[in-house]
Amino acid sequence: MKTLKELSNNAYYDMGSHSQIVIDFVQETEILFDIDEPKNNKEKYVLLQGLGAHAYDISVTLEVFNPELTDEISILKNLESLIDIRMAYINSLDFKK
Questions:
Q1: Hey, CA dihedral for 2, 53, 45, 84, is it positive or negative?
Q2: In terms of CB atoms within 10 Å, which of 13, 14, 34, 48 comes out highest?
């Protein structure tokens, strides 16, 4: 699995070989990952909702994506995996009430 930085560099330097939607998903994932770690349950909930919605958008896109675009599909699946890992980490944070 590639890191987000590798995916981002790949999308940036090879823009001509990737569709705009893949580039947008990479950039949106970077934005979500750049958000500071939550400091309380409310921030945790908001961040998890954003990551979950983004993961859902990617999964819906994968359902209708042209199966011949294997590189693009690989990038999107990689993003899904990275988001799942990030969500698991955020979920593991325990804030005392």
A1: negative
A2: 48
Cα–Cα distance, 57 to 28 (Å, whole number)? 11
Higher pLDDT, 6 or 83: 83
Q: Confirm whether 22 is domain-assigned.
A: yes
97 belongs to a structural domain: no
For the chain, how many structural domains are there in total? 1
Identify the CA nearest to 76 among candidates 32, 23, 40, 17. 23
For 17-38, what is each residue's pLDDT tens digit? 788 899 999 999 999 999 999 9
Distances 25 to 37, 43, 87 between C-alpha atoms, Å:
21, 22, 17
